[in-house]
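INPUT
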Amino acid sequence: MNEILACRGLTKYYDGMREKHVLDGVDISIPAGRIVGLLGPNGSGKTTLIKLAAGLLAPSDGAVLVCGMVPGPATRALTAYLPDKPVLPRNLRVRDALELYRDFFADFHEEKATAMLADLSINPTDKLSAMSKGTLEKLHLALTMSRSAKLYLLDEPIGGVDPAARDYILSTIIRNYAEDAALVLSTHLIGDIENVLDDALFLQNGRVVLAGSVDALREEHGKSVDALFREVFQCSANY
Amino acid sequence: MFGKLLKHECKATGRVLCPVYAGFVVLVLAACGMLRLTAHFGTVATEGPVTTLHANTWMSVLSGLLCIAVVLGMMAVVIVTEIVLIVRFYRLLGDDGYFWFSLPVTPAQHMAAKLLVALLWSVVSVVLFIGGMLAFVLLADDISDGAVVAELWDALRTFSVQWPVFGFVVLFIIGVLVSITAGTLQVQLACALGMRWPQSRLGASIGMYVVISIVVQVLASAGTIAGGALMLPQITQLTATQAVYLPLISMACMSVWYLVLCVVYFAATHWLLTKHLNLV
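OUTPUT
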């Protein structure tokens, strides 16, 4: 099994908040060729887990490994990361953003990105500062998915875009990711992405409470993953 | 990869700083041109009646305002440069970091690129500052038919007979470069320490900068007092010719001290960015 992402007892708490673990002893293993949904309510640790894998946070305890390596410059060359908010410098134009990706990522396919941007009606001369949040998210996603990475980490990739664009984005994700790569995405919009997922990981209070292949979960619980999510994470009925 | 990082850092900072510098150069040229015109028409005014005096007054006022603007511009160039460079690093450890730290680049390369570009723009801003002053000196020299530069040259020659001017200039340039480097690295360290308090990062970064400054000042003062006390017997026995080298030795010691600070700041920031990166 070609393991792309592995977490061993992964724990994260912030300075001065040792009693509050954002992640608490998470053990997961994601092989190549899988699209994994990271599902959980707000504050369950999804974004923290993705940031740890992207090397933007240091673990408090345990380990996270990408292709067998501790996150660093070497793993960043293999990881395509899409944050949950637009983070490209806002004073750029689209062509400058393409140049950034071309300069820093050897696996970036500019022609693929250009074609995707044309599909999304984003021009190379457009200024990022003049773009809406949804358009920025589309731009980020197009750039991220134009890489031939080993690990794709997509944090809420469809959260800020309109339903019509979601279909294009999801088909883009499936079309562009290779079988030797793994894709991890977090979202609340489970109904929209359920059909593209191979596996689902349910996180609650920093712990994995449910994990398995989407087909097996559906069969075992007799309901869709979306319905299962609502059942597992339902709010108090006494409210 | 480091070269590409430098290229993009230069482009990003240049987008903001180049228009500021260009504006300053235009301002200096305008002020010099206006002063020259004022001086020219001022000589004519001695022969003319009231109307010439009226025009002269307006030109003098405009020249004066432009000169004030240049002086403010000189300060603004240096201050804006430093603010832009500080904000760049501060934002690297905030939202901008999500992109920059996802690149296959080491923290040391990020720091070095930011440092080199900061050094470059700081030197440019200092050159513009000095250039602004020099423009006025040369203009005054031109108006006074070469008297100002001749007087300055004479003063420099007199000074160089008694003091090792070349050594001063070299040590001064080294000292300025090393102190700018230490200052930039101190800001980087303060921002990296401030990152540990994500809920109040700005306040924590400023607080850390103040704390580091106090610690460094205390250490420097203690070192100076101790060094002075240790060397006092030798200093009192120096002849007049030997004593002129004392300022040189002091400047060299200061440069070494800043160099030590640079190493400590760089190592501490690198450790924080490598082992405790927390982009919340």
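end of record. Chain B has two domains: 13-161, 163-280.
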